[in-house]
Structure formats: C-alpha cells, structure tokens
Design a protein that fits this description.
This protein has 25 helices and no strands. It has 540 residues and is an all-alpha fold. The protein starts with 9 loop residues before the first helix and ends with a helix.
Length: 540
C-alpha cells in the first residue's frame, strides 16, 4: 500500500516551491533572455509570470482538492481517463526528470570559470567535457542520496539551502546596482527592444523563463505529504511564484545595467558568457561577489536538484498508480516514507539526459516545451471536474474560473507556438514516444480497442498535431515556412486553441479513475478509485 507521511507544513512546502524555482534559472536565464530580446527581457519575465500564474491557479485548486503525491500526473486521468492522463503525465515526468541533470550541469558550467586549469577543463564553451559530465554525475547522485532516506531530511536540508538562495541573488543584484550599473544600456545598442515583440515572446518560451518558474508545481506534487493541504498548497504555490518574480526581475535589471559597454559592440545578441553573473562581477572587480556566486552556483542548483529529484519520484509513483508503470515503482518504504524504487528510476534516466544534452541552454529549451505540453491539460481538467464532480469539497476554489481556465489554455498554446519550429515539433515527437508504453499497458488491462478513454483523448491528440502543423506553417518570425503571416499566426493559434479547449471540456467524463470523496482519499493509506486501475480500466 502506498502510504506517505504528512510531515510538511505550509512554510516547509513554500520552501520546497522556492527551492525548485530558484535553481539554475536565475544563473543563466537573465543572460539568455537578454541575448534574445535585449533590455526588453524585463517584459518577457513579466509576461512569463502572468502566464504561469494563469496556469498555476487551476492546478492549485486541484492540488488542494486531491492532496495526492504526484498530483500533476493524476488530474487529467481523473477528468478524461487513461489516454489524456498518460500523455499529460508522461510529458510532465519527462520534463521534471530532465531538470535534475540540468541543475548539475549549471553548477559545473559555473565552476569552469575558476582560474585553475582543472576547472577550466570542465566546459569547452559549448558543452561539458567528459570530466565535466563525471562531476555533474556526482552531483546527481548527491541529490539522490538526500532524498533516499526520509522526506524530513530533504525538507530540513531544503529549508537551509533556500534561505541561502535568497541571500546570493540579493547580494548579486545589490552589488551590480551599486558598482557597475549604467542606465544607458536600456536605450543603447539597438534600443530597448532591438529584436522586436516577437523576440520578447520567444524569450518567454525558450530562454529559460518558463523553465525558471516550473518549480511552482513541486508543492502540488508533494501535496500527499502535507499537513492541511487546503491551506498549505495555495500558500506555497502563489507565495513561491510572487517571491520568485520579484527576484528574477531585479536580477534581470541588474544584469542589463551591469554589462560593460565595450561588450555591446555587436549588440545584445553578441553577448557570450560562461558564468554570466560571475563574469560581470569579475569585470567590475567585485571579487567577493564572484566568490559568493561560485558558491551560489552550487547551492542554488543543488536545492532545485534535490527538490526535482523528490518531485520526479512522486510522479513515477503517480504514473504507476494510474496503471502505466510496473507496480514495484510505486512502493513506499515503510519506515522512511519515500518511493525508493522510483528514485532509482529517476537517477538512471537523469544519467541518460546528462549524456544526451551536455549544455544548459539546449536542455533548458527541451524542458520548457515539454513542460508546456503538460500544462495544457490543467485548465481543461479543472473545468471538467467542476462539471462532473460539482459536490466535491474545494478548499482552494478559484473565482472566475470560466474566464481564467480558457485564458490559461490559450496562453499555454501561445507558449508552445512561440517556442519556434522545429523545436515545437521535435518535443511533441518526443512526447509521442511514450505512446507504445500506453498501448502495452492498455492491452494488458483491457485489450486493444476504442474505449471511452480513447474517445475522451482524441481532442488532445488532434490538438498537439494541430499546434505542430501551425508551427510549421506559421510565420518565419517563429521558425515556420511563412504561409501564415506574422500577427495572423498568433490570432489563428489563439482562436483555434479556444475551440480545442471547449472540445476538451466537452470530452471529459466521470471515468473510473475519479476520486469518490476527498475525506476518504485523505485517510492514511487511502488511494483513489484508480487503486484497482487495471480492473477498473476494463470498464467502458
């Protein structure tokens, strides 16, 4: 029986959210956003925060309503059945587990700026060297061990790490503001938005901004280990996003103002840093700040790496609970209350991603797009559950959901489109690689056929194919062939995605995986009706 221990309080859960959000994103996100959008990267962070809040609120309602660990892979299953649930959960897990190695890569890439020869041999300017990969692997194992013993150890370490993660960005912003800040950078070198509005939108999707805010879902995924989830989950989700956006914008402004004018001879797109903030600190003779940043480059990603290791394991357990992973992966250690087999799987997959993607920027793009795909079902699922389960208690009921949910779906669709072709199509293809797993377990459970589970998922399959097609046909501004001109392309995406939203809401049904009542679901050791997922899946 899968039984977690409810040991996390609201502050601990907030620290988990912040620990996930304030990871490697702040170390590299400001630089990459500036390269893409120039000083208008500030606007990109604001747009990203607004979109993430619209996406987070429906998930927050469901997290408080269904306090189950690994919740992000469960909600679509409750609202639409197995096909939508699997695709959404698979996309979310692929994105989350790949964040573990990227945090380790961030630490090693920053270390490569040290002046010792052995450190400079860790990174060759575009990717980690074999020695750098080995060092990153050691960090991944460290994240694993912190989570291996007990959630209480993880929470205690994470609280200390998160406090430190506030200190380093604060000193970084203050040091650059006081020492090397030049307000003329915001209007020079091509102006405030040298690459136009489209570059701002692309920066939101691919430069690390969406990636930087991804950690908001960690409190949702750990809801099964939280005391009073109806209060703690909303507090942690909203609190972590609002705190993070203040930190990120301050860092972005400080970064833009601190870039020496000599480095802008070829414009913002010509900026090339290995350790962006540390390089700026050294340029302004802030050696104390550079040392602090090198320490922060270990602590910040380590905190996020530990948090995502915990989250990825809970997602594995959630997918197993839904009936699409071997039962052994759902086992919880009876003494320590952690899913150890799931942790081992996440460790192995982390090493695979570490070997395939050896640079922070490349992997950040992959993670961002995969995460957006997992987000699109959230607004649809919460609307379906409002219709099909109107009497279930909702401790964090969101006002104005009939407006907020479709807006969130449209915003997520635009993020997918802004990610640019061919990246959008490539990641949708990666998500499709999980379909054979779905087919295999469906065949074992109820044979092959077109059941209500598949009928309820047609909209999502068509939606992903449609977004990929629009991305290919769209304007050259976003990597397409130019058949749909710039401006009209975004209108087509927005309007058509509204149609898919209402199709998705209409497709939801009271399938066998729904929860009966939250009181029973929250009882120690209780599981959703999907506990007997294979047998229930045989129902039509």
């Amino acid at each position: 029986m899968n039984q977690y221990q409810r040991r996390l309080g609201p502050f601990g859960l907030l620290m988990v959210g912040l620990g996930s959000i304030i990871g490697s994103g702040w170390l590299f996100g400001a630089w990459r956003a500036t390269v893409v959008a120039g000083p208008a990267a500030i606007i990109a962070w604001l747009i990203g925060a607004v979109i993430i809040i619209m996406i987070a609120l429906p998930l927050m309602e469901m997290g408080a309503m269904f306090p189950r660990s690994g919740g992000m892979v469960r909600y679509a299953q409750y609202s639409h059945g197995s096909l939508v649930g699997f695709v959404s959960g698979w996309a979310n897990w692929v994105a989350i587990v790949s964040i573990i190695p990227i945090e380790a890569e961030a630490s090693i890439q920053y270390m490569s700026s040290w002046k010792w020869n052995w450190a400079q041999g860790l990174y060759n300017g575009s990717e980690l060297t074999p020695t750098g990969l080995a060092a990153a692997g050691v960090l991944v194992v460290f994240y694993f061990l912190i989570n291996y013993w007990t959630v209480r150890l993880f929470a205690a370490v994470n609280n200390l790490v998160t406090v430190f993660k506030f200190v380093v960005p604060a000193f970084t912003a203050a040091g650059l503001f006081l020492s090397g800040f030049d307000s003329h950078n915001f209007s020079g070198a091509g102006g405030f938005a040298p690459n136009g509005v489209a570059a701002i939108l692309t920066a939101v999707a691919t430069s690390g901004i969406v990636f930087a805010f991804n950690g908001f879902q960690s409190p949702v995924n750990l809801a099964g280990e939280v005391r009073n989830p109806g209060r703690s989950v909303p507090f942690a989700v909203i609190g972590s996003i609002l705190a993070a956006v203040v930190i990120y914008i301050l860092l972005q402004v400080a970064f833009i103002g601190a870039v020496p004018s000599a480095l802008l001879a070829h414009g913002w797109s010509g900026l090339n840093f290995t350790s962006p903030f540390a390089d700026l600190a050294i340029a302004w003779n802030l050696n104390w700040l550079a040392i602090l940043l090198y320490a922060g480059a270990f602590v910040s990603p380590a905190g996020a790496g530990m948090a995502y290791t915990a989250t990825s394991a809970r997602l594995v357990q959630g997918i197993e609970d839904n009936g699409y992973f071997p039962h052994v992966l759902g086992r919880i250690h009876p003494r320590f209350g952690v899913p150890r087999p799931a942790l081992w799987l996440s460790l192995g997959v982390s090493f695979v991603f570490l070997a395939l993607f050896r640079g922070w920027g490349t992997l950040a793009e992959v993670i961002s797009v995969a995460m957006i795909i997992s987000y699109v079902t959230g607004p649809v699922s919460v609307a379906v559950l409002r219709r099909t389960e109107p009497n279930l208690p909702r401790p964090a009921r969101i006002a104005g959901l009939h407006i907020l949910a479709p807006l969130g779906f449209v915003a997520a669709s635009l993020l997918l489109y802004w990610s640019r072709w061919p990246l959008t199509g490539e990641i949708i293809g990666i998500i499709a690689l999980g379909i054979p797993i779905y087919v295999y377990y469906t065949w074992k459970q109820r044979g092959l056929g077109f059941s209500p589970h598949e009928r309820a998922g047609v909209w999502l399959v068509c939606y992903l194919a449609w977004i990929a097609l629009l991305s290919w046909l769209g304007s050259r501004t976003f990597g397409g062939i130019g058949l749909i001109p710039y401006g009209a392309d975004m209108a087509v995406v927005a309007l058509s995605s509204l149609g898919f939203y209402y199709w998705g809401v209409h497709s939801g049904w009271r399938n066998p995986f729904r929860l009966i009542y939250p009181p029973e679901a929250e009882a120690p050791g209780a599981r959703p009706l999907g506990e007997s997922a294979p047998g229930l899946a045989q129902q039509s």
